[in-house]
Every structure is written in C-alpha cells, then in structure tokens.
Design brief:
Layout: H1 8-16, H2 20-27, H3 31-38, H4 46-56, H5 60-63
Length: about 60
C-alpha cells in the first residue's frame, strides 16, 4: 500500500487552526464538495478555487487548484 502525500489544503488549514467545515462554510460550498476537491475526486470551478485560495492566503497554484 502506498502512502498518500499530505494535501496542501489540509496542511494550510492546520497552519491556520481552521477545519474543513469552517472553510467550506466561509467559501459557500458543502463540506462534502470540499472533501472531494481535497481528495482530488472533483475539480472545482475558478470562482470556488479563487475563494479557497483567498481564504487560505495562498495562490491557487500553491494549493494545487
């Protein structure tokens, strides 16, 4: 079994002391949708990616969005 590398969004959430639910609410998406984005199962649109990046204080590219 291969070990999955840590997700950049999850790392940044931990650095900020935030959780996934808080980010989802702040960005206006469901926690389930954000979870799928974090796991790489779903791509998010430009507007959502911009909102996530802005809330986390990073660029979309840095976060892998």
């Amino acid at each position: 079994m291969t070990k999955q590398k840590p997700n950049k969004i999850k790392i940044r959430l931990a650095e900020l002391g935030m959780n996934q639910t808080d980010l989802a609410k702040d960005v206006g998406i469901t926690n389930g949708y954000l979870s799928r984005v974090i796991r790489g199962q779903q791509k998010c649109g430009d507007k959502t990616a911009d909102a996530i990046a802005a809330k986390l204080g990073r660029t979309r590219r840095t976060l892998g969005l």
